[in-house]
Amino acid sequence: MTTLNLPTAASRRARRGRLSRGTSTALGILFLAIMLFPIYWMVNASLQPSGNTLTAGIFPFAPDFSGYERAIADQGHNLLTSLIISIGTVVLTLLIAAPAAYALAQFRFRWINVALLVIIIAQMVPGVVIANALYSAYNDLGLLNSIAGLILADASLAIPFAILILRTSMMGIPPAIVEAARIDGAGLIRAFVSVVVPVSRNALITAALFGFLFSWSDFLFALTLTTTEDVRPVTLGIYQYLGTQVSNWSAVMATAVLSSIPAIILLVLAQKFIAAGATGGAVK
User: Full-prediction pTM beyond 0.90?
Assistant: First the structure.
């Protein structure tokens, strides 16, 4: 009797397992659809002839690209400004964070823990506090309404985060390979550039991507540290766009879609490096 019941019990367990996986898949698809629906509606509204989100259909059967033409004409310069600021932020962040993270990972000094504590505290300081302090300093230094000023401001948030990511990865680098490069005649800088940087590629790409996203999505520094239209990132352009284009939502939504494209492309291209960089050093 026991032998006859075993297949029945096994089949029941298998059936419950299939139902459980099916339920989990259905819930995952539902939650994903809910999260992606605002993005879909943003694209849908940008292609509507009227540009009115209240009367837009569920699908743009007759797409109108006039909103994109208006967005490129009005916000193209702001998109280019944001791109320059974001790239500059990434370069400055990596130039400072990479050597600092390596020093904190490989050198053994008593002050290392204190430095890490300071970096963590820097991450906890509200951005509005930093923005207000920078405004006073920038006003004295003549950095208001400048691309360099926004790069420095955005880097002040990206550098501590990048140091924490890079240090985790660089802690797993064997000191022997760096010492071998030094024995072959390489100096400290040459050994760092030729050995440490290639080994830490995944973490560097991860830190660079997050630094780019920090800068690309920045609104607080852009609002506080710019007072003219000479330097205006796209986030601030969208904010000020709303006041004059409330009757033409297709242009507003088209600007939002265009500003999302660089981040989406970078995330798609770098997703494998992000996964590897985020877990680098975790098992070493």
Answer: no
